[in-house]
Amino acid sequence: MDNDMKAMQRIRSLAVPLSALMAALVLAGCASAPPTVAEHAGVAVPASFSEQKSAAAAGWTTAAPAEAQPRGAWWLAFSDPALSALVERAGEANTDVQTAAARLAEARALLRSADAQRQPQVGASGGAVRQAGANTANGMQPATLVTAGLNFSYEADLFGRLSGASDAARADATAREALLQSTRLMVQADVAQTYLQLRSLQTERQLVEQSLTAYRETLNLIERRFRAGDAAELDVARMKTEVSATEAEALALERQQATLTHALAVLVGDVATGFTLASPQGEATLPVIPAGVPATVLARRPDVSAAQASVLAAQARVGVAQAAWFPAITLTGNGGYASPELGDLFKWSARSWGIGALLSLPIFDGGQRAAQEEGARARLEVAVAAQRGQVLAAFREVEDQLSALRLLAGQSQVLGQAVQSSERATHLSDVRYRNGLVSQLELLDARRNELRNRRQALQVRTAQYTATVALIRALGGGWESGAQLAARS
Q1: Of 173, 175, 335, 414, which is most buried by a Cβ count within 10 Å?
Q2: What is the pLDDT of residue 476?
Q3: pLDDT tens, 225-279?
Q4: In this structure, how many other beta carbons lie within 10 angstroms of the beta carbon of residue 118?
């Protein structure tokens, strides 16, 4: 008991200078910890989008990215149940979404691992050693030592090295979460665009088939007139050429339709073989983006949020590299039993314990820490440049789609008038041809013009769908008008 009391007194005598040392190191760490303030991307924020002059009153405000915010079921605005079903399937079975989700799970596991480094580490140990030699108490006489006990270690985070690593891992997890949202939005947009293009091809193919049927009927008429001596063989050859050319166009559309069907199968996580899509039950609604879309919606873009999180992670790692220059102190302890006989191992007289503190301070490392800090700063510059590039790309994508929708609306209106005029011209030419007032060439030209105008109008309509989906994606997956934002606030 006297020996135990003396040992405890020695521990108390060590506690005072050890605590003073730790306090001094903590104060030094507080004075030397690097800042972790996020740097601005350096992009001049405009008051409104160039293509939305009416939205200037809404203006821009500072908004924190909402990378974890759900993107919303924006595809419901197209009022197409088949599209909604495909998008939901893709959200569950798409391989890109599954890969992004797995990477997020990995990032979260690394965050838990980094947080665990800041906690005390406790473990159990046991063993048996039989040895002899000059470094043993019995000299050359073999002796056995059996041990069992608990070990304890804790690294004091005096200069923020461990907390910085934890902050970096947390920012990485945030970036991965944003990238998961970005991947989901990308897949949803790809599914919507592929589906709408496929529906457009189906409609265009039906249009070509209708024209082909009309051409074949005209060919039969010309052949009858040729056999009766009322038409020249040249008219028959011209009509056969038109029928063959239209059949080739129908086959080309069928090939494109098959390619898009296979692509859609992969997007929804299905096998292309045997994947089919039912015939459309009607035209999908073309949603109108509210004119007062505020530019703050860009803050919802998950890729912009991911870029900002990457900057924060790089900043935290610069702090970790700087903290490597300062001392590190590790507290250790162990307690248990040690005995030369296994039967006496857990007797009170066989108990053993020990505590310690290890202070390490870098003196010379050949420039390793300086190189690591320089590399961390370079990676920070890369992340800042990437964030700036992402913000610039976001502005460009929104402006591109807004201008595309504006111009496509005008083009659609003009082509609608052209379709009506060409329909009337075809009808009049058909009547005049059947009455022998005009040649076959005039009728063929009228039908070609009508088919071309119809197909162009359909293609412009498809481009409007595609640009609308692209704008929704550029806005971060949805939109809110100024009135909706005011009502919600």
Answers
A1: 175
A2: 82
A3: 888 887 788 888 988 998 999 899 999 999 999 999 999 999 999 898 888 887 7
A4: 15
* Helices of type H across 156-301: 161-227, 233-267
Share of the chain above pLDDT 70, in %: 74
The secondary structure of 261-327 as a DSSP string is HHHHHHHTT--STT---PPPSSPPP-PPPPTT--GGGGGG-HHHHHHHHHHHHHHHHHHHHHHTTS-
Host H or E run for residue 331: strand 328-339
Which residues are CB-contacts of 415 (< 8 A; sequence separation ≥ 6)?
Answer: 453, 456, 457, 460
Task: Find all residues with CB under 8 Å of 39, minimum gap 6, and list them.
Answer: 311, 315, 384
Residues 6+ apart with CB under 8 A from 148: 124, 125, 126, 336, 337, 345, 346
pLDDT value, residue 448: 84
Distance between CA atoms of residues 365 and 369, nearest Å: 7
* Alpha-carbon span 447 to 452, nearest angstrom: 8
CB neighbours of residue 35 within 10 Å:
7
Tokens for 166, please give them.
């934890």
Q: Band of the pLDDT at 48, cuts 50, 70, 90?
A: low
Q: How far apart are CA 398 and CA 400, in angstroms?
A: 5
Give dist(CA 102, CA 395) in Å, integer: 30
Q: CA-to-CA distance for 232 and 219, rounded, in angstroms? A: 12
- Contact by Cβ (8 Å): 132, 138: yes
Q: Could you read off the pLDDT of 92-112 as tens digits, one per residue?
A: 889 989 898 898 898 888 888
Q: Tell me the pLDDT tens digit for each residue of 394-411.
A: 888 888 888 888 899 899
Tokens of 387: 């964030």
Give, for 122, the enclosing helix (H) or strand (E): strand 121-131
Query: How many residues does this entry show for the chain?
Result: 489
Q: At what angle do helices 81-93 and 233-267 cross, to 10 degrees?
A: 50
Residue type, 258: A
Which residues are CB-contacts of 257 (< 8 A; sequence separation ≥ 6)? 198, 201, 202, 205
Closest CA to 160 of 293, 29, 11: 29
What is the distance between the alpha carbons of residues 481 and 469, in angstroms, rounded to a whole number? Answer: 17
Of 107, 104, 261, nearest to 183 by C-alpha is: 104
Do 191 and 267 form a contact (C-beta atoms < 8 A)?
yes
H or E element, residue 22: helix 2-32
Packing angle, helices 161-227 and 233-267, rounded to 10: 160
Contacts of 365 (CB under 8 A, 6+ apart): none
